Amino acid sequence: MNASKVTEFTFLGLPHSWPVQLFLFVFVLACYTVALLGNLLIVMIVHADPRLLQSPMYFLLTNLSIIDAGLSNVAVPMMLADLLSCGRTISFGGCMAQLFFLHFFGGSEMLVLTLMAYDRYVAICQPLSYSTTMNRLHCIKLLASCWIGGLVHSATQLVLILRLPFCGPNELDNFFCDVQQVAKLACTNTYITEILVVASSGLLSLFSFVILLISYGVILVTLRGHFNESGRKALSTCSSHLTVVSLIFVPCLFVYLVPFSSSSVDKIASAFYTVVTPALNPIVYTLRNKEMKDTMGRIFGRIVMVSVAAVGVQVVNHSIFISLEAGHTPVRVLLDDIKKIILMGQVMVSSLD
């Protein structure tokens, strides 16, 4: 371990113009809100529908949403605070924690996406053995391996940084702490560290991306000529997965595959991966997935029906109270109100259908 003299780091990636900072604050806040609410919505929708919850694909999707929600909380809240308060510093411990959790969630996400590709491959190319191969216990074991893999990956990155000495420079050319920018500030030759980072993060991204492309390539070849309803459904699911894979892996390949390059493209790719991608994933999976949209419609329909019923009960109680005050028999009024509520319910049901 090092004997570091640096106690805090300063971010240089944030703009110094207040109008630009305000614009970025609104944009980042919107992405952060969509990321949290969207991923939480996916988890709630899947758990609200037992049929979806029993499906391995949606079980994996809930884990991906949890990872995205966690990833959006690593650097974005502090970025929002810095944009609003014009602060640009982070403690050494905070920087190391940010670096650790960034790679923990990022590494786990890549492995979960690879597992989702494997799930689609078995479902489409080996449908007879799908229920046996992807049973719940096996899925849990595979998911645990993904989370453990992310933990090992992030611990490796943290050890690579903590063994470096930091004795003076503390300005990071980025919006948050990451391995490349922090390692550049070390008071020693970091060539070996660069190679190890590329071997860990860069090759992990490249290897997973290639495996994913091969898996979906085999799936597309299998689906060729079978574009009936089930084939179109499988193709739509795979296209959603490929969209998310591209949004995640392409920025990571830009950032981690080249040894410690310093360019505006790297900063944009880093910001896109940590800020924008977690917000786009739930949009892609909900808008392009018919089962998710149907389940969401049913859930919202139930909420509306419960609200209508609650209003109806209040109307009936109010009518009975008024009738009693006027000395009228409330039965006829009650029956009329019940008919109105039933009619409202029929209209709501027909609109949902």
Give the topology, please.
Elements: E1 8-11, H1 18-48, H2 50-53, H3 56-85, E2 89-91, H4 92-125, H5 130-133, H6 136-162, E3 171-172, H7 179-184, H8 191-223, H9 229-256, H10 264-287, H11 290-326, H12 330-352
Parallel strand pairs: 1-3
Antiparallel strand pairs: 1-2
Helix pairs in contact: 1-3, 1-10, 1-11, 3-4, 3-10, 4-6, 4-8, 4-9, 6-8, 8-9, 9-10, 11-12
Question: Could you please describe the fold and organization of this structure?
Answer:
The protein is mainly alpha-helical and 353 residues long. The protein has 2 domains: 8-288, Rhopdopsin 7-helix transmembrane proteins (Up-down Bundle); 299-352. Helices cover 80% and strands 3% of the residues. It is built from 12 helices and 3 strands; from the N terminus they run E-H-H-H-E-H-H-H-E-H-H-H-H-H-H. It has helices at 18-48, 50-53, 56-85, 92-125, 130-133, 136-162, 179-184, 191-223, 229-256, 264-287, 290-326, 330-352, and strands at 8-11, 89-91, 171-172. The protein has a 3-stranded mixed sheet. Helix 9 packs antiparallel against helix 10. The longest helix is centred in the C-terminal third of the chain and has 37 residues, at 290-326. 30% of the residues are buried. The model has no long low-confidence stretch (mean pLDDT 78).
